Structure formats: C-alpha cells, structure tokens
C-alpha cells in the first residue's frame, strides 16, 4: 500500500470507522446494550454506562464522518479565499465538485456488486436462519434467473443514490447524504469565496440555526446539516490559527472538551428513560429541538462536534491520532465501511454459527429452528478473527481497487476538462479531494 503522511484527521476517521463496525456488531449480537439499562429498576451493565457504552455504539461516529467531510472539503477554498487567490479557489471548487461523485460512487458500486455476487451464489443462505435479527434482516435471496439478478443489481446501484437504500447492503444508506453534504460544502464555499472571514463566521451561524430548526428531517437537520456546517467552522479556525491552534487554550481545556463530548456522544440509542442521566438529557434536548425531532441525532452531533473541537486544540490528542496504528486505520477506513456489513453476513456469520449449522436445532415437530451462536468465548474469538480479515482485506482494497477507481475518475475528469490524459498516473487515494488532498471517508 502506498504510504501517506500521517495526520490527525485520518486517525479520527479511522476511529469513527472502527466505532461504526462495533456498533453494528452490538446491534447484531447484544442489541440490549443500546439502552442505558434493561429497565428503570435494573442496574446497568458496564457497557451501558456513560463513556464505556461508546465501545459498542456507532451512532456518534456517523456524525464524525459528516464533520470530517465539512472540515476537509472546506480547508482549501477557505485558505485560498483568505489569501485573496479567488481564481484558484473557484477553480478548486469546480474541480472537486466534478470529481467528487465519481470518487464516492465508483468504489460503492464495486462493494454493492461484490455483495450482489455473494447473494446470487447463495452465500447468504446461512444468514436467513440465524438467531440475530439484525443479521437475518440483511439476508438477500438468490435470484431465479441471470436476467432477474442483473436487474436487481442495476436497481440496487441506482437506488443507493436516489432513495438512499441498497437492497444488498443496508449500511450504505448514508452515502447519498455524504454526497449531498459535500455539495453543500462546495455551494457554501462558492458563495463565500469573496467575503471576509468575519462575514463567513456569521454565515456559518445562520446556517447552523437553520439546520437546527430543521431537525424533523433526518437527512436535513441534525444528522447532515449541523455537522457539515460545524465542520466548515472548524476548517475556518484551522486557517485562522494554522500551526498555533494547539497553543491557544490551556492544556486542561481541550481535555475537558473531549471528555464532555464523549459523555454527550454516549446518549443511548434506545430507551433513554431507563436511566436517570439519559432521561434528563432527553428532557433537556426536547426543550431545545423542534417538535418530533430525533433528539438522539442532536446529542450525537453535539458530542462529536465537541470531541472534534477538543482534538483540534489539543497537541497531545493530535499526537495520539497521528501514531502509526491510527494512521493505518485511517487509510483503510472507507473500504472498512464499505465491506464490513458484507463480511459480517458472510465471514463472521459462518464462524459464529458453523457449529450450529452442522447440527441444526429442531423443535418437537422436527422443524428446523434458528441457528444458535457459539459460546461467548467462541464469539469473541470469531470477532477477533473477523477484524483481522476485515482490515487485511481493506488494505488490499486500498492497494488495488482504489488506484483503479482513481484512474477511471482522473481519466474522465481530464477528458471533461479537455486536458491530455497521462497514462503514468496511478489514481492516488480513491477519495483524494482537490481542495485538501486527503482521503475523505463518507461514512
């Protein structure tokens, strides 16, 4: 895999990707951990408590992805605008907006085609019979004919970007929102290239208030809009403070921000009324958010935003996130996101349920019952092996699939610009952004 300079935003992206996978594993095998307690009178499990629950929750990680999208895509245009180089800013926005769709859509199409292929060789057969509701819901039938299979593939590839649902991989529902979020960044940058930084801060504030009161819509308010706008705000801070950002605040303040953000990000996905601390958070946010708003998304946003801001001002947090392990998980974060659901439904399911599949349980009438997972130790070992296979496969994806997709996108954009194509280009990281030159993970 081609090396890439370590940077803290890559490390943070890698953490978010890891959290998404953990959240889906929790939903698959221990969904009761998503509540702060089984009921209001029951003592919570360790991983139902604040902070600890982040180890099995992935909702706030989705907010982090939107924040990173806003931050990374806005840095370049803001920097050129502040330098008075408006021609370069407009040029960068135009090029990024054109290439962005291909750099997001192509690898997603590959991942969907892989899941489609597995489904149509009946690779998800075991998934239909397991005792995990979440895994069982991910089952997809084997189509009766090649023509039916082809039509189902085309439908899935299109609907991922139209209605936001992919029959072969339900976890891709966020990807069209990330594409929309990127275009929101480009549109805002295009509209504000000529304004001074103070005016742009005011514009961020107005946009933030607009999206706050639009919280009834999942895709409009607290999930996409607030995080994208706050990411642009942090990008503005980056261009304002530059290398001195980590010396602006006293050392304890960023640490306190990170801790506070982690607490808020731990707002439970289910049944907040089962614990006093989450019930109070629910009542407080209901008093601030619009009617019928999903207050979980507001807490996800506030928690992730506070963590991002704390890391931005913290030298020690940045140092941790630029370590080799975080740099690696950041580099492979996008293929990890694209492939993890498919691998949960295949590799992990086969490992967890194979003993039961070899001797399927039956009821008194002789009818086959749901396959049962192995012992707790068996499941833990299977998950450890699953993670190893997932990240090794993601590294191979970055080494082979990303350059191919990048080359296709570069060839098309060069043709669109009327520029000569250079066959020596290897494509670069698949989601390299024209305004910041770093990989941007959408989800």
TrEMBL record:
Please give one Gene Ontology molecular function term for this protein.
Answer: acyltransferase activity, transferring groups other than amino-acyl groups
**Region of interest called Disordered, as start-end residue ranges on this chain:** 419-443
Q: Which InterPro entries match?
A: Acyl_transf_3_dom, Acyltransferase_3
Parts of the chain that traverse the membrane: 12-32, 52-72, 104-124, 173-195, 216-235, 247-267, 379-399
Query: Which Pfam families would you find in this protein's record?
Result: Acyl_transf_3
Keywords from the UniProt entry? Membrane, Transmembrane, Transmembrane helix
Domain called Acyltransferase: residue spans: 7-354
> Where is this chain compositionally biased, Basic and acidic residues type?
434-443
Name the domain of life.
Answer: Eukaryota
Its protein name is Acyltransferase 3 domain-containing protein
Which organism encodes this protein? Answer: Amniculicola lignicola CBS 123094
